[in-house]
Design goal:
By secondary structure, this protein is mainly beta. It is 7% helix and 45% strand. It has five helices and 19 strands. It has helices at 34-38, 85-88, 91-94, 193-196, 231-238; strands at 2-4, 8-15, 19-24, 29-33, 62-64, 122-127, 131-139, 144-153, 157-168, 175-181, 184-190, 205-219, 224-228, 251-255, 261-264, 272-288, 291-303, 306-315, 330-341. The strands form four sheets. Strands 5, 9, 10, 11, 12, 15, 16, 17, 18 and 19 form a ten-stranded mixed beta sheet that branches. A hairpin with a 4-residue loop joins strand 7 (131-139) and strand 8 (144-153). The longest helix has 8 residues, at 231-238. The protein is globular, with a radius of gyration of 25 Å.
Length: 346
């Protein structure tokens, strides 16, 4: 019998020259280096502060950022134009024709009033309520001041996710939401934050529509790595082979075909991700802020046998392939992850 400080109790199932296999009572079997099990047990960790979720609302949920925190909203226009100034030049045409999104018309009230010290603001969209350009404005005595504008889409893939925290930008009207997606933390830009913020409470489940707007995307490069297994690993893997199964060998090849990969971009914002994903469906769109392209639903994460699919919006400007994306193909690239609250739960 073995008691492991992380995995709990189990029983030794395999002994090799350098590796030991342990089957744990909670399920699963792990192959450990012998030296890893012979190290001294570390001292118990120091007591930590209670989790944020135990604080009273809104401190349980909202984390205000300082002025020194940097974000890169200008990069969100890369799939549509060479630089954001091309969009800014159209503001005199866009602003008078922008309108309130449908979320303001639902009549549903959040479970608590919005704190009086929160920054007041509202949102407009153009040209369509579900896809186009969004403007967040702050009312001032002289005029309504534009705080931000960004491309948005509300018809993404639907997911029920546990909210962890909301990082509120210094201006008070923009935020990135962190959720638990299959046991890991994922952050997205909230395209309806100024509308939905009073609904949010850490630890609760909400339905979100998630979309990735690809900065760049294309057919995935074919990759493979050759590796050599330790003889203990080969013996451990082969000891329970069933009749007719081919034995494992020391030499192996790892291929990325069909892999689902979703990782933060090094040096990017928390809502920027690299992806590699097999395509499940492709739907063409036209004239999204001047760009045609495709809504591609692809698998970006796997939880065992369950696929987590994401709608990735790929403009022709962002796509590097000669032919359009197609079902069954692996694609890769980088994207900006955005999300929008759907139906607030009672």
């Amino acid at each position: 019998r073995i008691a492991h400080p992380i995995y709990g109790e189990g029983i030794v199932t395999f002994v090799g020259t350098e590796y030991i296999g342990i089957g744990f009572d909670g399920g699963g079997e792990i192959l450990f280096r012998r030296e890893a099990l012979e190290r001294e047990v570390a001292a118990p960790p120091e007591p930590v502060a209670p989790p944020r979720e135990t604080l009273p609302w809104p401190d349980s949920t909202f984390v205000p950022e300082g002025d020194e925190t940097r974000h890169f909203p200008g990069s969100h226009w890369e799939p549509f134009a060479a630089n954001a100034t091309q969009i800014m030049a159209r503001l005199p045409e866009i602003a008078p024709n922008a309108h309130l999104p449908p979320a303001y018309e639902t009549g549903r009230q959040p479970p608590r009033p919005m704190p009086g010290d929160w920054t007041k603001g509202f949102q407009l969209v153009w040209p369509e309520p579900t896809q186009g350009l969004a403007l967040v404005l702050r009312p001032e005595p002289e005029a309504n001041m534009i705080v931000s504008l960004f491309p948005f889409i509300t018809a993404g893939s639907r997911h029920t996710l546990t909210l962890r925290q909301v990082n509120v930008w210094a201006g008070g009207l923009e935020a990135q939401v962190t959720v638990d997606w299959g046991g890991g933390d994922v952050s997205f830009f909230d395209t309806g934050y100024v509308i939905h913020r009073a609904w949010y409470e850490a630890g609760r489940d909400y339905d979100f529509a998630l979309s990735g707007i690809a900065y760049r995307a294309g057919p995935a490069e074919q990759r493979e790595w050759h590796f050599n297994r330790h003889p203990d690993e080969v013996a451990w893997m082969n000891r329970n082979l069933k009749d007719g199964e081919e034995p494992f060998e020391a030499d192996g090849v790892l291929r990325m075909d069909g892999a689902a990969v979703f990782l933060p971009v090094k040096g990017g914002d928390v809502d920027d991700y690299s992806f590699r994903a097999p395509v499940k469906s492709v739907e063409a769109f036209q004239d999204w802020l001047g760009q045609d392209g495709w809504r591609v639903r692809a698998t970006v994460i796997r939880f065992g046998d369950e696929d987590a699919d994401l709608d990735i919006m790929i403009t022709r400007r962002a796509w590097s392939g000669e032919a359009p994306p197609r079902v069954g193909e692996d694609i890769e690239g980088q994207l900006w992850l955005q999300g929008c609250l759907l139906i607030p739960r009672e």
